[in-house]
Design goal:
Structural class: alpha/beta
CATH superfamily: NADP-dependent oxidoreductase domain
GO molecular function: aldose reductase (NADPH) activity; androsterone dehydrogenase [NAD(P)+] activity; bile acid binding; ketosteroid monooxygenase activity
Keywords: NADP, Oxidoreductase
Shape: globular
Number of domains: 1
CATH architecture: Alpha-Beta Barrel
Binding site for substrate: 117
Number of helices: 11
Number of strands: 12
Radius of gyration: 19 Å
Organism: Bos taurus
Distance between the termini: 39 Å
Largest sheet: 8 strands, parallel, barrel
CATH topology: TIM Barrel
Helix content: 25-40%
Protein name: NADP-dependent oxidoreductase domain-containing protein
């Protein structure tokens, strides 16, 4: 990590800020929150904005970014913007049009990172999920290695600086890495990762292939009740995290974020509260001791907060 600029180098030579601002919000508030909180996040110092077509708020995020460029807070090159290819556009011929649509919504000439949202395909169409008459999702048979080749072409065309994946396990990553004629390795794999699901094996695998692990749900998630198991313990109430937080005079959330950064993971922090968004920038003001890191490592219980099958979220 380059501590001065708080970035890590990707395997294609570009740099990614280690702390990102996550922009997913429940559909009923996604647009409003994007307009309200994205400009604020940029004002307090966030330079990495994580978006996706499926979040249905890229237009609002584009307006927010442009407003901060217009008022001189940032230049385009200061912002690292990620977008994601949705499951209905995994056919190779649909990849570039999907990226171009996101670019148009974001009002950008290029994104810094474009990633495959999931290693599975749904039938193409305007809706996020096509269903048959019985309400069952209609899957599409697409080899995601062909999708990857289309992503490589988008990189060559300058529409995205880097390309990566999300929600891939090590076998799916290996499929791309061992693909004949591979031109670019994935620069990252974005997955659920927090002290109760520390993904240590996947992290080791990714590191061994110079793939950066990007953590979402880094603070656990109690936010969308329909698809988060209410019986799971609340991560930020964990006594070990609380004790470490007290020792450093920080919050449990900051300890959870700092833990990821110190183990070489890029971490996304969502925010629907200005106080928390501002507070998240304090992650660079302190350091966890080796004993703290060991204690947080010991919290792993392989708990997934996001137990949903993807179709539940976007039904």
């Amino acid at each position: 990590m380059d501590p001065k600029s708080q970035r890590v180098k990707l395997n294609d030579g570009h740099f990614i800020p280690v702390l990102g601002f996550g922009t997913y919000a429940p559909p009923e508030v996604a647009k409003k929150e994007a307009l309200e909180f994205t400009p604020f996040a940029i004002e307090v110092g966030f330079r990495h904005i994580d978006c996706a077509h499926a979040y249905q708020n890229e237009e609002e995020i584009g307006q927010a970014i442009q407003s901060k460029i217009a008022d001189g807070t940032v230049k385009r090159e200061d912002i690292f913007c990620t977008s994601k290819l949705w499951l209905t556009s995994l056919r190779p011929e649909l990849v570039r049009p999907a990226l171009e649509k996101s670019l148009k919504n974001l009002q950008l000439d290029y994104v810094d990172l474009y990633i495959m949202h999931y290693p599975m395909a749904l039938k193409p169409g305007e809706e996020l999920s096509r269903k048959d008459e019985n309400g069952k999702l209609i899957f599409d048979s697409v080899d995601f290695c062909r999708t990857w080749e289309a992503l490589e072409k988008c990189k060559d065309a300058g529409l995205t600086k880097s390309i990566g994946v999300s929600n891939f396990n090590h076998k799916q990553l290996e499929k791309i890495l061992n693909k004949l004629g591979l031109k670019y390795k994935p620069v990252c794999n974005q997955v659920e990762c927090h002290p109760y699901l520390n993904q240590s094996k996947l992290l080791d695998f990714c590191k061994s292939h110079e793939i950066v692990l990007v953590a979402y749900a880094a603070l656990g998630s109690q936010r969308v009740k329909e698809w988060v198991n209410p019986n799971h313990p609340v991560l930020l109430e964990d006594p070990v995290l609380s004790a470490i937080a007290q020792k450093h005079k920080k919050t449990a959330a900051l300890v959870a974020l700092r833990y990821q950064i110190q183990r070489g993971v890029v971490v996304l922090a969502k925010g629907n509260n200005k106080k928390w968004i501002k507070e998240n920038m304090q992650v660079f003001d302190f350091e966890l001791t080796p004993e703290d890191m060991k204690a947080v490592d010991g919290l792993n219980r392989n708990i997934r907060y996001y137990e949903f099958h993807v179709w539940i979220l976007y039904h």
